[in-house]
Design a protein that fits this description.
By secondary structure, the protein is an alpha/beta fold. It has a single domain, classed as TIM Barrel. Helix content is 41%, strand content 12%. Strands 3-4-5-6-7-8 form a 6-stranded parallel β-sheet. A two-stranded antiparallel sheet has the order 1-2. Helix 4 packs across helix 5 and helix 5 runs parallel beside helix 6. It is globular. The two termini are 16 Å apart. The mean pLDDT is 96.
Length: 350
């Protein structure tokens, strides 16, 4: 199968940055990743840019209280479901737009894309909090996770699908393919004693968002910064699977056969090879190259085609950088840019 996305070592970021100035955050992204920029989430600037509150507004029964929120799944929430789905089914995309006070990096990102040199931007990345993570983070008035309430978790998925459509329509006007990641940190506990999630529920939450991205002619990705059941992600129908290659390379190589089938079907593997922790201070182009080469060798030893592995390799930081310092973030971007430049040259003709 011909891949619609063949990254060959190009690099992008995850989402969050530690900056308090949106324009400075966007400038760093455009300088560091000019070919594949992303709009920055700024959780240190405002609690409204956290993974829950950034994407929750508009959900039926939503109650915001200070820096937290919950969903009223009683009479109020049930009463709002009809009007909510009226907007969804009516295609009222703008009703699901990112709110300006909750995504202050988005508008300056659009301005930067408009000012970018023609042809310099090859791909553009947006992101949503994954529906499994958002539905797990949201609680009802009795403290129960919304992910356990079928009606309201479906609303969470529908809302994120509409927001993904909105982002794609806003970003594709700049002439480059748009990639939307679902950020799913909660998948780290999938299958453990701490989670009641089953694969059927997870896939049912992902499908509407992935379908929406596909219908808008976007490219989809799922990011999990911990270890999880990677076979489930490979089977989900996403175009890109993003894993923490710095900390969990050995865990991912256990799924080499599934990864090979995924890439043979046109999927890309996004290697989170640059650490988003204080460990970045001890890393260099050489040490990170050694880690990447070791990972590639492990997949090859498990029978994955070397050329396929490299053609379908995207490079990213291991996770978001919202908890780092600006100085550490600049170091992450510098190492990522060096690494990507090196391997894009090496793999250009694959």
């Amino acid at each position: 199968m011909t891949a619609k996305f063949t990254p060959k070592g190009i690099a992008t970021g995850i989402g969050s940055l530690p900056h308090l100035n949106p324009e400075e955050a966007v400038a760093l992204v455009m300088e560091s990743l000019p070919a594949f920029p992303f709009w920055p989430q700024l959780p240190k600037l405002s609690h409204l840019e956290g993974m829950t509150l950034q994407y929750a507004p508009g959900l039926p029964g939503l109650v915001e209280e200070g820096e937290s929120c919950h969903m009223d799944t009683g009479d109020r929430g049930v009463g709002e479901l009809d009007s909510f789905y009226g907007l969804v089914l009516g295609g009222a995309i703008d009703s699901f737009a990112l709110k300006g006070d909750r995504a202050k990096g988005f508008a300056p990102f659009l301005e930067a894309l408009n000012d970018a040199q023609k042809g310099s931007v090859k791909f553009i990345k947006g992101h949503v909090t994954g529906p499994v993570t958002l539905a797990s983070a949201l609680k009802d008035s009795r403290g129960r996770e919304i992910v356990n309430d079928e009606s309201f978790r479906e609303a969470v998925s529908a809302q994120l699908a509409m927001n993904a459509r909105w982002q794609i329509r806003k970003l594709r006007v700049f002439g480059a393919p748009v990639i939307i990641f679902l950020d799913e940190p909660v998948m780290e506990v999938f299958g453990s004693a701490y989670s009641t999630l089953d694969s059927e529920t997870v896939l049912a939450l992902w499908n509407p968002v992935l379908d929406a991205i596909r219908e808008e002619e976007g490219i989809s990705g799922i990011h999990c910064c911990g270890n999880t059941d990677w076979a489930l992600l490979f089977e989900a129908g996403t175009d890109i699977v993003n894993f923490d290659a710095y900390n969990f390379m050995d865990k991912m190589t256990l799924y080499a056969a599934e990864a090979a089938r995924f890439m043979e079907g046109g999927g890309a593997l996004a290697w989170g090879i640059v650490p988003t922790s204080a460990e970045i201070k001890g890393e260099s182009l050489d040490t990170l190259s050694e880690r990447l080469e070791a990972g590639l060798a492990a997949f090859e030893a498990a029978g994955v085609d070397p050329a396929l592995l490299r053609r379908q390799c995207l490079l990213t930081p291991s996770c978001g950088m919202g908890s780092l310092t600006v100085e550490e973030t600049e170091m992450v971007f510098a190492r990522l840019r060096e690494l990507s430049d090196k391997y894009m040259r090496l793999w250009e003709n694959l």
